[in-house]
Amino acid sequence: MRTGIHYGQGQIDLTLPDEAVVLEANPVEPLPDPEGELRRALEQPIASPSLAEVARDRSDACVVISDITRPVPNQIILPPMLRILEEAGIPREGVTILIATGMHRPNEGAELESMVGRWVMDNYRIVNHQCRDREHLRRVGTLGGGPIELNTIYLDADLKILTGLIEPHMYAGYSGGRKSVLPGISSLETLRYMHSFDMIAHPGVTNCKLEGNPFHEAGEEVMAMAGADFLVNVVINKERQITGIFAGHPSQAHQAGCDLVREHTVHQMPEPADLVITSAGGYPLDATFYQVSKGLIMARNMLRQGGSIVVACECREGLGSPEYCEMIAQGFTPHQFNAHHGQAANFVIDQWCLQTTYQAIETAGKIYCFSENLDQRALAGIGVEKISDVQAKVDELLPSHGKVVAVPQGPYVVGVAPGA
After folding, report:
1. Residues 275, 404 within the same domain
2. Residues 326 and 248 in one domain
């Protein structure tokens, strides 16, 4: 059989044995009229008055959007929302679009235009959240003994709106909803708790799980501290077409979207795989190796102990942040990493991502990575082997790996295997 593994803005064609299993999101037809469905969702939201009613008599607004790592169709969902705010009496100069970067870099210039469109750029104030910018952070409470500090632009807004994309998430269960606030617009100090070694190691912190997931529960708690008046989240298919729009109450609308995502992205597997071939999700998610952990942990969760993972990731921007690069350069074994970063005093920004990669390494006998933009020296220190040809490596592994699973979309599809 033939399949295509997502890579950058294209794919890598792959031929597999007929008995191999290809896990993809169940086919979901796109909404025939997404603009019309958006209008309906804003007029008849879930467990909430309409957006027009919520916006009435508000003096200003903050609309939180996801950063470049999430393919949110902002150019479809933002203009109608912003027009409703203006019609409700909030002037354009009273609206700030806040990019929930979390610990990621800012989005500017042509990249920003690709996210929101020229009309929004020309007519609205757009600000990138900076998790280390003390001037625009304020404490609103505590969680797990640590401070909860959030962006003051959002806290001071009279109307607070969250937008985003709902998809499987390796820590929060599902993205979207409360993640726009935590980690989206939180301080580095707050993220020390949310992305701490102990949090990421918690067994309840995993894909497609909300109940009993401390990462999700913390997000809900912090969203309540900060306040949130309205939510607009979307679900997309593998062609990145909108399949569902969920607007209204920040928690209840988000839950409805999670239910849809679970229906078409979660697959029960009869047994673990010997070999998982996956991706980092394609662009924009695979712009750096930092994000590859999401595809690796999905693969780990369906792999037998000692199995192999082959992952494709373009990494057009290299490894990731300076802190992440420095951690990789240390060349820790999983045991050394756990011993060092398991101590709260040694917390480093982006350590969560490498911790997750090491979790996959501890399960897999070997991880092979295809990337045209990384060299072997960058990966050898953490035990990942760079390969030059995905098909050739797969052909080499097939004789010794009986149960083969391919996941073309990487982290966007979840396989659940007993005992994996």
Report:
1. yes
2. no
Place of tokens 């508000």: 58
Q: Which of 236, 264, 292 is the last residue of a domain?
A: 264
CB 194 within 8 A of CB 184: no
Per the annotation, the verdict on 169 as an active-site residue is yes
| Catalytic, out of 6, 104, 129, 254 | 104
Structural domain for 176, as ranges: 34-264
Is pTM, for the whole model, over 0.85? Answer: yes
**Mind giving me the DSSP string for 123-164?**
HSEEEE--TT-GGGEEEEEEETTEEEEEEHHHHH-SEEEEEE
pLDDT in tens, the chain (420 residues): 999 999 999 999 999 999 999 999 888 899 999 999 999 999 999 999 999 999 999 999 999 999 998 899 999 999 999 999 999 999 999 999 999 999 889 999 999 999 999 999 999 999 999 999 999 999 999 988 889 999 999 999 999 999 999 999 999 999 999 999 999 999 999 988 888 999 999 999 999 999 999 999 999 999 999 999 999 999 998 888 999 999 999 999 999 999 999 998 999 999 999 999 999 999 988 999 988 999 999 999 999 999 999 999 999 999 998 999 999 999 999 999 999 999 989 998 889 999 999 999 999 989 999 999 998 888 888 999 999 999 999 999 999 999 999 999 999 899 988 766
Active-site pick, 169, 195, 249, 267:
169
- Whether residue 408 contacts residue 24, with contact meaning beta carbons closer than 8 Å, is answered with yes
Asked whether the beta carbons of 311 and 361 are under 8 A apart, the reply is no
233 sits in which H/E element:
strand 230-236
Does the active-site annotation cover 104? yes
Give the H or E element holding residue 260: helix 252-265
